[in-house]
Amino acid sequence: MMTDTPSHPGLISLQGIGKRYQLAGQELSILNDVCLSIASGDSCGILGASGSGKSTLLNILGLLDLPNCGQYHFAGHDIFTATPDELAAIRNRQIGFVFQSFNLLPRLSALDNVALPLSYRGVSRHESVEQAQRMLEQVGLAERAHHRPADLSGGQRQRVAIARALVGQPSVILADEPTGNLDSTTAQEIMDLLLTLNREQQVTLIIVTHDAHIAERLERKILVRNGVVHEADRR
What is the pTM of this model? Predict the structure, then answer.
């Protein structure tokens, strides 16, 4: 079990969180009695062996999966009492996702991929494109706005994915092995970008990683082992 008392109110607060699955008639316990607070502006690495529960924890943090028990408050919202529509709105407006496989739509340009989350909010096409263009400029890809993902390098695709995650001005970025498909030099550039955004815009950054070098660059290291969560000493 892990406890933490942040110096200012937590953006994320988990208390006694548990997650179980039924598999072939047997109950598997994935997470047990997780207690965790993450404050606005934190940078956190979630580490653990394959099958330890770290991806399940990230999915719960991102409201892609719901726990079986405990309490979860996100930016003051009680996740257990929120309706599916309310959960979808929180995901769309307050959480940005970055994945190892980029998850870009291949038929859309970089610009349209970045603008997509705003269209789900009902933002006008003109405004969505303007905001998307600004985000591509921020991640250094303005000149690639009209290229499709197949015409971009892996590092460029991940920059597009980061721009898409940020375009809605989320409170938190959740990144699942964001440098896993990149060479070491490009991985360093992507981490530099994410940490700059964390530092300059105070976007909370939570990264699942198996890379100790990446974890060392983050303020907090949250360790998941056999469904139990604890925190290494902070930097």
Answer: 0.88
What's the mean per-residue pLDDT of the chain? 90
pLDDT range class, residue 62, cuts 50, 70, 90:
very high
pLDDT per residue as tens digits for the range 171-204: 999 999 898 888 889 989 999 999 999 999 899 9
What is the residue extent of each domain of the chain? Answer: 41-63+93-231
**Fold of the 41-63+93-231 domain:** Rossmann fold (3.40.50)
**What are 13's strand-pairing partners?**
37, 73
- Give me the mean pLDDT over the 18-42 stretch: 91
CA angle 153, 157, 158 (to 5 degrees): 120
Q: Closest by alpha carbon to 171, among 5, 42, 6, 67? A: 42
Which DSSP string do the residues of the chain spell out, in sequence order? ------SS-EEEEEEEEEEEEEETTEEEEEEEEEEEEEETT-EEEEE--TTSSHHHHHHHHTTSS--SEEEEEETTEETTT--HHHHHHHHHHHEEEEETT----TTS-HHHHHHHHHHHTT--HHHHHHHHHHHHHHTT-GGGTT--GGGS-HHHHHHHHHHHHHTT--SEEEEESTTTTS-HHHHHHHHHHHHHHHHHH--EEEEE-S-HHHHHTSSEEEEEETTEEEEPPP-
Cα–Cα distance measured from residue 62 to residue 91, given in angstroms and rounded to the nearest whole number: 7
